[in-house]
Amino acid sequence: MAPKVESKNAETAEVKVTKPVIDPNDTFIEAIMRQKHIDHEASHSNLINQFLHLISSSIFLYCYAIFFNDYERAVYLGLTSLIIRQAGHYIFEPPCHDAEQAMLGFDTQNKVKIVITYGAVPALLFLKLVTDGTIEFSLAQLWFVVTLSVVFGRVALLWYRYSFAVSMHWYIKFITDPFTDIPAYWMSSYQIFQPRLLKGALHMSFPNTFEIPEGYVAPKSGYDKKNH
Question: How confident is the model at residue 1 (pLDDT cuts 50, 70, 90)?
Answer without folding.
Answer: low
